[in-house]
Design a protein that fits this description.
The complex is a heterodimer of chains A (about 220) and B (about 375).
Chain A lengths: L1 E12 L2 E13 L4 E6 L5 H8 L7 E6 L2 E2 L5 H11 E4 L11 H11 L4 H14 L15 H13 L5 E5 L7 H16 L3 E5 L3 H4 L4 E6 L2 E7 L1
Parallel strand pairs in A: 3-8, 3-9, 6-7, 7-8
Antiparallel strand pairs in A: 1-2, 1-4, 4-5, 9-10
Chain B lengths: L1 H30 L2 E5 L9 H10 L3 E15 L14 E9 L1 H8 L5 E4 L9 E5 L25 E6 L2 E11 L4 H4 L1 E5 H8 L8 E6 L5 H10 L6 E5 L6 H39 L1 H9 L4 H37 L2 E2 L4 E2 L5 H27 L3 H6 L3
Parallel strand pairs in B: 3-8, 5-7
Antiparallel strand pairs in B: 1-9, 1-10, 2-3, 2-6, 2-9, 4-7, 5-8, 6-7, 11-12
Helix pairs in contact in B: 1-7, 1-9, 7-10, 9-10
Classes of the chains: A alpha/beta (about 220), B alpha+beta (about 375).
Chain lengths: ~220, ~375
């Protein structure tokens, strides 16, 4: 499903080069739920950004469904992200002037879903994450946990091949975090491939595989 | 955008209108729609009575007036001057012999009387003096030009035309923003004809007022086909405009366009700043949109549409204010410039061209900052990194 080979990422700051990923090899099959853990600065978010095509690695290869996605040009990558990948950001990343329903419907509309179908699908997914009564609320009218659930609904509405989540519970209280993780658990049980970065051991346990990163390298892996 | 629109259209419109007001005044109060004048090598229009008959027979003609013209001198202090060493208070002027009724029907000059009364056909030995011949109206002085002092209606002056002297009474002072009127001396045609010895009734000018909606060039061409151009110059009011007026209109138009261009640049910079600030403050959300897979072009188009919206709204409001209020109001209440009654000239074709320019400029000015922000690294935008 997704295979990463010798992935490297370094940042240039003046004359100083910082190597954050030092050659990652990783693979996840369809339906896997993988948690990436590590201390702060280990490179876990950077790895997620490379795999999810939000950033360009310095070296290495990424294959999704046997397709070398790094060979795609900018427009093709954008289109690939839109149709094949889903994202849940740490800070929800919702558009503030759009309602929950509109936030979820927007990527669908951009994929040429009819307006009616896009809004029906968006409403279904918001209901799925327990926000059926908050469709027309703006993000500012929702709690952090609710906003994150909108973000999840947006990420899964188009049925992506892989759902990437970057510290999805970092800004949430325990109750909200548990609700969000329960949604991930349910999605996983329905066959959704999930790759999640977290630093919280409690929530990493929802995943079936836990990868530990340190100093830009995978240092260990746990499987349930 | 509304003010930019006004800047684009109104500034150049007033500049051109300044001259157009003068052109309109000459047309309305002197040349009228078509003017027949003597050939350059002739002192008058030969066969004038026959030409006048042709003109009167044309169905397009509403009114016409024929004028006799000669240069002459007006002297004011000839009665009070006690010796030859005292300087004579004289002014040189163009003299017009007119039928007061016909002249007024065509040029409506009686409304310009500032002192005394307009002429009647029975006013022998009486004249109207142009205000610029009267020192109290002549607020500038230049070498070779003198104006008359201590004159007013009822005062006698001595005129000399073609060597013939007459003592006449000033019946009125006439002042218009048309030099031919304000620097002329008018008397009734029958008396003027006898002064200049023009017993054949050949006149120097015929001004023709056409019925509303008639194209002056049509009547000009009819007169030419009737052979009038063999003995006289036949011109529409536009043909008769001096070259310097045409040059000035072109110059003012160019000046207006230059000012408009500055307005366009200012509008572009304004839109650039507005869109840039808008885009840069929404950089994170632009990053999110890109992150979830929204095409860069779609995001840029949204900013272009935003710029277009500003320009469109400004132009629509501008059009409503311009054609619903400003233009008709300025036509009814021209600006009182010293040499013309300035109006606002805003032909719809030119206005549309300027709107088009404004749209294009605005769209480009909106696209550039949007592009600058949208092309930034997606992740940097989302994370707020520089």
């Amino acid at each position: 499903m997704i295979e990463v080979k010798n992935l490297k990422k370094s940042f240039q700051d003046g004359e100083k080069t910082t190597e954050v990923l030092k050659g990652i090899d990783f693979m996840a099959e369809s339906g896997d739920f993988v948690a990436i853990m590590g201390r702060s600065g280990a490179g876990k978010s950077t790895l997620l950004y490379q795999m999810s095509l939000l950033d360009e690695p310095t070296a290495g290869e990424i294959f999704i469904d046997n397709k070398n996605v790094l060979s795609l040009n900018t427009a093709e990558r954008t289109s690939f992200r839109l149709s094949q990948l889903g994202y849940v950001f740490q800070d929800y990343a919702l558009l503030p002037e759009m309602t929950a329903l509109e936030n979820v419907a927007l990527p669908l509309l951009m994929q040429n879903f009819s307006e009616k179908k896009a809004y029906v699908k968006a409403a279904e997914h918001l209901t799925l994450v327990g926000l059926g009564q908050r469709l027309h609320n703006l993000p500012s009218q929702l709690s952090g946990g609710e906003q994150q659930r909108v973000s999840i609904a947006r990420a899964i509405a188009h049925e992506p091949k892989i759902l990437f989540a970057d510290e999805p519970t970092a800004n949430l209280d325990n109750e909200s975090s548990r609700i969000v993780m329960d949604i991930f658990k349910k999605l996983h049980s329905e066959g959704q491939t999930i790759i999640m970065v977290t630093h919280e051991v409690e929530y990493s346990k929802y995943a079936e595989r836990i990868i530990h990163l340190d100093n830009g390298l995978i240092v260990s892996e746990e499987k349930k | 955008m509304f003010f930019t629109f006004l800047n684009l259209v109104v500034v150049s419109g007033i500049l051109i209108g300044l001259l157009q007001g003068a052109v309109n005044a000459v047309r309305t109060h002197y040349t009228s729609d078509v003017i027949i004048s003597s050939l350059n090598n002739k002192t008058y229009i030969e066969n004038s009575p026959e030409i006048i008959s042709i003109v009167k027979s044309l169905p397009q003609v509403e009114n016409m007036t024929a004028r006799y013209m000669e240069g002459g001198i007006v002297e004011a202090n000839y009665k009070t001057r006690t010796n030859d060493k005292e300087k004579a208070n004289i002014a040189t002027a163009s003299f017009y012999g007119i039928n007061p009724v016909a002249e007024n029907n065509v040029t409506d000059i009686s409304k310009f009387m500032v002192e005394g009364e307009y002429l009647t056909p029975e006013d022998y030995d009486q004249v109207l003096l142009g205000a610029y011949l009267d020192k109290k109206y002549m607020d500038f002085d230049y070498p070779g030009f003198t104006a008359l002092e201590n004159i007013k209606p009822g005062v006698k002056v001595r005129i000399t035309v073609n060597g013939v002297e007459r003592e006449v009474t000033i019946k009125g002072i006439i002042k218009a923003k048309v030099d031919q009127i304000s620097m002329g001396v008018f008397m009734i045609d029958s008396q003027f004809r006898s002064i200049i010895g023009r017993n054949d009734y050949n006149v120097d000018e015929i001004s023709i007022k056409l019925k509303s909606g008639t194209d002056p060039s049509v009547v000009r061409d009819i007169l030419k086909r009737n052979g009038v151009d063999k003995v006289a110059k036949v011109q529409t009011y536009e043909d008769a405009q001096p070259k310097f007026i045409k040059d000035m209109i072109a110059t003012f138009s160019l000046l207006g366009n230059m000012l408009s261009s500055i307005g366009l640049v200012v509008a572009s910079i304004t839109i650039f700043i507005v869109i840039f600030i808008n885009a840069i403050t929404r950089r994170k959300f632009i990053g999110i949109l890109k992150g979830i897979g929204i095409n860069e072009a779609a995001i840029e188009i949204s900013y272009i549409l935003q710029s277009f919206f500003y320009a469109f709204c400004g132009s629509v409001i501008g059009l409503i204010v311009l054609y619903g209020f400003l233009e008709p109001w300025m036509t009814a209440h021209p600006i009182d410039f010293s040499f013309s009654d300035g109006i606002l000239v805003a032909p719809i074709g030119g206005t549309m061209l300027r709107i088009g320019l404004l749209m294009v400029t605005t769209i480009i000015a909106g696209f550039i900052p949007a592009r600058l922000v949208v092309r930034k690294n997606t992740l940097d935008s989302i994370l707020g990194r520089n």
